[in-house]
Amino acid sequence: MKLPVGLLEKAEAEFTKTPDDVSAFRAHLAQSSAFVLDGQTHFEARRAMIVASAREPVDLAFERYIGTNDLLPVNYLQLGTARSRPVGRVRYFDKTEQATAYATGFMVSPDLMITNHHVFPFADAAQFLGLTDDAAIEFNFEFDVNGNRQQPTTFALDPTAFFHSNADLDFALVAVKHLDATGKHQLSEQGYLVLNGSLGKAGVGDFATIIQHPDGQEKQISLRDNEIIDNSLDTTIVYKSDTAQGSSGAPVFNNEWQAIALHSAGVAKKDGAGNYLDKDGQIIDVSSGRVEEARIVWLSNLGIRVSSLMAYFTATPAVSLHALGSIFASSAYTDARPFVSTASPDAVGGERQLTSSPSASSSSVQQSAVAPIEIRISIGTGAPVIQTVGGAAGIAGAPASIDVEKRLEDDRDLSDCLGFDEDFMGVHIPLPVPSAALRKKLAYLTGSRTACVLKYQHFSTIQHALRRVPVLSAINVHGKYRYAALDDSTRKDNWLRDNRIDYDAQLDDQWYAKSGFDKGHLSRREDAEWGSTMAAAKASADMTCSYANAVPQVPAFNRAIFGYHGKWGQLEQDLLEQGVELEAGKSARINVFTGPIFRDDDPIHASVQVALSCFKVVAWYNKDGDLCATGFELSQDQLVSNIVFEELNFGRLFKPEQKPLGWIEEATGLTFAPILKDADTFRA
After folding, report:
1. 339 with 318: CB under 8 angstroms?
2. CA pair distance 34, 255, nearest whole angstrom
3. How far, CA to CA in Å, does 185 sit from each of 361, 369, 394?
4. Which residue among 86, 260, 362, 396 is least enclosed by CB atoms within 10 Å?
């Protein structure tokens, strides 16, 4: 592939240090602290990013950044394998050059691949199709653990579905077909790399690891001699690393395996007359403003900052308003996701190589995502023993139940649900309104940038995309249409995600199964279990078993165990069941608003920050017919500050406390209707 000379001149103008300057600076790195190299502002941003992203004890990751510990945890290798899955070899027939061109690209969403603009220097899809032929990305073009070349899985590029490029940031985004050339493999099997637009992912002296297909060869990785030597430029990061032809479009990673840059080009070796030189000192001819990439000697490499790419994606309507590009503006698009395992395509010789990849299941963008499986690998003196613990149909050893649950989620139709009735109590009581800051973190309905309310029967919820739990669940409770026949014998909780929002914005059974937490209903099953017929009542109750209506709750908070009634259940029973059942007429109607109270210092469990307290606001009529509202916070009493969160003490008690609605508003970012605040029963 030939590079445009203008790209090389741009890199040379941005990074003006000579080779001697670079050598001297690299020697300086070993003698200077990270605080001195990065400055206080970036030092603090880098530390905050390490806390948020490290998949090891944070203090060890931070020690590595500041230079007091160069050791890496062994999971670094496992994570690297997982991160390599969405990286592939880009190839196409270049009609201008009459030759096959090679580069590297990687998936950044369930549908879109990114590579360089100089790989696809086209203005639109028509020009793309007119100047290329057989454009595709090949995954798994690499060697297995036995040194055998794997059979690549080839997916055709689909510029008619989406194509957008930018020369200044040297990127090209292009859609990829969902089925491979054989029709046997889904694109979702490869996963994708999430681009985190926040600053703090790279510090001077940190290492820049690149996964690439150099010269169109099998997938390779650069791990040595690759320090970041300048992160002060607006849109680029400068680093030393081994790259070659075909490395254009490769992802650049930090020590936490976050993508920090899109590899672009760099500063090329030249003689005094300005001629480009190869490794033998021979002049490289320039033809039509382009130079042969394979012969260039790189003095330093430049990558386009991920933060600059994300700023462009979210600010450019051609990307952000497109159905396939809108994912970049979604708060559910985050790299704070747990890794799960998926099976890679069959290897040569019929062996099945199993690796791990980030979850890419998303009903809103990709209906055919592969369900995650857990794989345990035992390595001894013989061959590795691979045990598939769970998975989807079509994968050896996978139970059908997961595939069935996925189909139930995908096929579920909730379009007829009316949701929370704002006039249920004879006066207008609307849903609380999220603040502007909170709205930026919500999960929005597919195809909408404003709608965030999930309507079920008798209740509605609003989902927090980053915390992956609701910020609010509001329900109408009616005491007159209850059915004695609906008891524990008729109850069957079948928990499902809601297909109207991104699946990745919701917790699931895999997360709860290993957490030790209960799936704590916000709107209770019992409160939704009413209707004009018993069948309607049961259907409404069944809908409460939605992951968009649950938060992680410790058993003591949620259940009647350890010799006392769960505090959450006790409050619900005292406030709701007794009051509703003993009163008649208008008083038999109650509105309940429930949700977690998020705090910045909430502990993290399995990559999810878990709220340790909840609020409940009840709207009801007293014996005189006056509208009343009562708010509560239920919080854990005496949480030990140094407790390891994964080793929870489930025996600790929770206590209910009445709170004014103004306090709940401040704690949650939700604004309640004035009619409720006027009816607040709280007295200091």
Report:
1. no
2. 15
3. 15, 11, 11
4. 396
Report which of residues 395 and 188 the model is more confident about: 188
Distance CA 117, CA 10 (A): 14
pLDDT digits (tens, 9 = 90+) for 528-586: 888 888 888 888 999 999 999 999 876 655 554 433 345 555 555 555 544 444 444 45
Which of 121, 42, 77 is closest to 305 using CA atoms? Answer: 42
Asked if 668 contacts 642 with a C-beta cutoff of 8 angstroms, the reply is no
Fold category of 2-71+200-308 in CATH: Thrombin, subunit H (2.40.10)
Whether the domain at 2-71+200-308 and the domain at 413-480+504-678 fall into the same CATH topology: no
Return the residue matching tokens 């709207």: 619
CA 644, CA 666: separation in Å to the nearest integer?
Answer: 29
pLDDT at 297 over 50: yes
Backbone torsion region of residue 625, taken as left when φ is above 0, otherwise alpha when ψ lies between -120 and 50, otherwise beta:
left
Measured CA to CA, the distance from residue 542 to residue 611 in angstroms comes to: 25
Highest mean pLDDT among 47-56, 64-73, 250-259, 667-676: 667-676
Of 3.30.70.120, 3.30.300.30, 1.10.8.60, 3.40.570.10, which CATH number belongs to 413-480+504-678?
A: 3.40.570.10
Of 388, 378, 613, 648, nearest to 514 by C-alpha is 648
Where are the domains positioned within the chain? 2-71+200-308, 413-480+504-678
pLDDT level of residue 245 (50, 70, 90 thresholds): low
Give the residue among 182, 187, 95, 185 at the shortest CA–CA distance from 132. 95
Question: Nearest CA to 237 among 256, 263, 212, 214?
Answer: 263
Query: CB–CB of 239/228 below 8 Å?
Result: yes
* Distance separating alpha carbons of residues 658 and 216, to the nearest angstrom: 66
**Average pLDDT of every residue of the chain:** 77
Pull the structure tokens for residue 504.
């990745």
Residue 564 has a CB neighbour count (10 Å cut-off) of 10
- What DSSP assignment string belongs to 364-406? TTBTTPPPPBEEEEE-SSSSPEEEEEE--TTSTT--HHHHHHH
Structure tokens at 351: 């062996």
Could you tell me if 409 and 502 are in contact, meaning their C-beta atoms sit under 8 angstroms apart? no
Residue ranges of E strands in 202-329: 209-212, 220-222, 228-230, 236-239, 251-253, 259-268, 286-287, 290-292, 298-305
**Amino acid letter for position 452:** C
Give the pLDDT of residue 555. 61
Give the DSSP letter string of 342-374: EEEEEPGGG-EEEEEEE---BTTTBTTPPPPBE
Asked whether the beta carbons of 177 and 156 are under 8 A apart, the reply is yes
SS (H, E, C) 570-596: HHHHHHHHHHHHHCCHHHHEEEEEEEE
pLDDT at 392 over 50: no
